[in-house]
Design brief:
110 residues, mainly beta, OB fold (Dihydrolipoamide Acetyltransferase, E2P), 5-stranded antiparallel beta sheet, 5 strands, 4% helix, globular
Amino acid sequence: MRQLMNFHVLGIKRYSVDGSEGASAYVMSPAEGDPNTVGAHVMKVPCPYALVDACRGMPMPGDFQAEVELRAGAQGKLALFVLSLNPANPKSQPNPQPGNQPPANPAPKP
């Protein structure tokens, strides 16, 4: 079953070990209402190896809308798998990547 979810994505890291490829997205959510945590929860969510290349040039960390698939995880528990990421609001993303920024001093109009 596929769903759309909003995540604050910190970054994505991929791996290739003995012919097995995969990647993980690191997402963050506030630890509101959790007396045992100060700050935020950081979660590791699996995703396809190719998602790293698909997200190059996107500003991270930032808010994203993720298409996720609900899968059977270990011990019969529900697990998320990120299929795709799209910026939630491209105009308000923090930390734009170099090359995606407007010039600091645009040329004056004649």
